[in-house]
Amino acid sequence: MTTDVIIIGGGHNGLTCAAYLAATGLKVTVLERRSVLGGAAVTEEFHPGFRNSVASYTVSLLNPKVIADLELPRHGLKVVERKMANFLPLDGDHFFVGEGRTQSETARFSQKDAERLPAYWNRLDAIADVLRDLVIQTPPNLVEGGLKEAIPELIKSAVIGRKLARLDMTAKRDLLALFSQSAGEWLDGWFESDPIKAAYGFDGVVGNYASPYTPGSAYVLLHHVFGEVNGKKGAWGHAIGGMGAISQAMAACCRERGVELRTDVTVSEVLTEKGRATGVVTATGEVLKARAVVSNLHPQLLFQTLVDPGVQPADFVERIARYRSGSATFRMNVALSELPSFTVAPGPGDHMTGGIIIAPTMAYMERAYDDCRAHGWSKAPIVEVLIPSTLDDSLAPAGQHVASLFCQHVAPELSGGRAWDDHRDEVADLMIATVEQHAPGFAKSVIGRQVLSPLDLERTFGLVNGDIMHGRLSLDQLFSARPVLGAGDYRTPVKGLYQCGAGTHPGGGVTGAPGHNAAAEILKDVRRRRV
Questions:
Q1: What 3-state DSSP class applies to 328?
Q2: Alpha-carbon distance 68 to 62, whole Å?
């Protein structure tokens, strides 16, 4: 069999890339190892009658251009906004974050902080607006060769330079701080009270195996404010039917455009001839030929397991081996007989539709990180609880609920010869008990649970070391250096082989941006007859 493009991995970025390529008339085949499309953005029944987003669990970063270009609403996607962004249970009190509430809530703890909030929002938005444009652009690539190869990259750099030049000096200084400082330093410079710093500081450690005072964590905070829901910047939402509804809408778009979608197909090798990718071999021995091969996999899974090291430059092989992954994430889905009630904010209410963050201070988050490094997991962990059935009654039987527990910090690998398979349930019990401390009766209401350790996330979804971002969002693994400097434009050292996953710019989250950008570069090469 011969086709124009083979895409390895039917996650949301692979589907996005396929849809864009097929729209130009290319014959595209997507090969997915699992029996369901969507990668980590899937909805599955985990307990009889209870469905939930298994891994990815909330919507904000999905790029509006991707939504429009793939006509996702026409293909069934409906996203609703949370009625409140976040709710933090505190010791004897609570803290609500949401439109029209954050400032008054902050004033209960610090009038000075409340007065500072509008300036904070405005200055963060100024940077986020510029970076939103860069999310769906290919970074300039450091290339070897002559002037002909360098000119396009110089033009890209100039365009980006003009965008950044539009920032005033205050914003430029903020941008430097956000790329170099820790989330804790950044927030300490703005605020004095613990609740507001904890609410925003959580974004600096979510999916990031780090203390909020680790340099570079301020960028992770910034990465999480790029998003929007239904045109409202900075909002968070829920896809009706769970995150799988995003992937299913993308798959519907692909089918309409003629993409061949194949599940239960494991790729065992990327074929190369004379240094060029020419197709793949599946685990069953099937040989599939193509003009171009595109990988939606983690970079290390691609280059260390599927591509012959002999066709890769030696330094590139070394750099890929050093690529760092591990987000210290422990993921749970629980079926509940009833809605939890939190001691500091009892009963139902808008706060139950938001992210319920059990991490009352930055010091709590720092202790969780230190404890994890010493012990393997935090004895007082950071837990975000999301109850999507408060917005979507299709996920659970009437009167009952499902909850996502997104838990930090747990070590990607345990020391001392310990294995995650032996400690998974012990840590799951700890996470349930942590919520129980703030919502008495929660543990008793759990009638079913699905537990995913970092090892489970790797085995099931190909998230190396359980890294939900496909690689750490550190300065040496961002933009033109993601995953490796010189391969930041979705092309690889192997001609005809491309990447479109979250291990490329702009990184993790359900954005569709890597798939969008990779397709643009592949189409350029098609027009120039380079593939």
A1: coil
A2: 11
User: Rg (Cα) of the chain, in Å, rounded?
Assistant: 23
What is the DSSP pairing of strand 377-386 with strand 401-410? antiparallel
Pair type for strands 228-229 and 43-47: unpaired
Q: With CA atoms as reference, report the closest residue to 292 among 17, 12, 13.
A: 17
User: Whose CA is closest to 453, among 489, 492, 426, 480?
Assistant: 426
For residue 343 the two structure tokens come to: 């001691």
> Which helix (DSSP H) or strand (DSSP E) does residue 497 occupy?
strand 497-499
349 phi/psi in degrees, rounded to 5: 165, 175
Instruction: Pull the structure tokens for residue 18.
Output: 């396929």
Determine the topology of domain 2-33+265-323+469-527 in CATH.
FAD/NAD(P)-binding domain (3.50.50)
- Dist. CA 240–CA 230, nearest whole Å: 13
At 478 the three-state DSSP class reads coil
Distance CA(458)–CA(94), nearest Å, equals 35
Give the CA-trace dihedral at 301, 303, 306, 310, to 10 degrees. Answer: -160
In three state form, how does the secondary structure of 298-318 look?
A: CHHHHHHHCCCHHHCCHHHHH
**pLDDT at 160 > cutoff 60:** yes
Pairing of strands 446-452, 232-233: unpaired
Question: Cβ neighbours of residue 419 under 8 Å, at least 6 residues apart?
Answer: 455
Q: Which uninterrupted H or E stretch holds 165?
A: helix 147-165
- Indicate if the pLDDT at residue 158 is higher than 80: no
Percent of the chain exceeding pLDDT 70 equals 96
**Phi/psi at 9 (5° precision):** 105, 115
Tens digits of per-residue pLDDT, 325-356? 998 899 999 999 999 999 999 999 999 999 99
Rounded CA separation 115/131 (Å) = 26
Q: Is 216 helix (H, G, I), strand (E, B) or coil?
A: coil
pLDDT of 228 reads: 85
Of 229-233, 309-313, 393-397, 411-415, the least confident: 229-233
Residue pair 289/296 in contact (Cβ under 8 Å)? The answer is: no
**CA-to-CA distance for 337 and 51, rounded, in angstroms?**
14
Q: What's the CA gap between 117 and 196, in Å, rounded? A: 10
Rounded Cα distance between 342 and 440, Å, is 7
Confidence category of residue 494, pLDDT binned at 50, 70, 90: very high
Task: Tell me the C-alpha distance between 54 and 228, whole Å.
Answer: 22
The beta-strand segments (E) located in 49-195 are 50-53, 79-81, 86-89, 94-97
Contact 464, 458 (CB under 8 A): yes
**Residue 389 pLDDT class (50, 70, 90 cuts):** very high
DSSP assigned state of 388: G
Phi first, then psi: what are they for 265, rounded to 5°? -125, 115
CA distance 378 to 376: 7
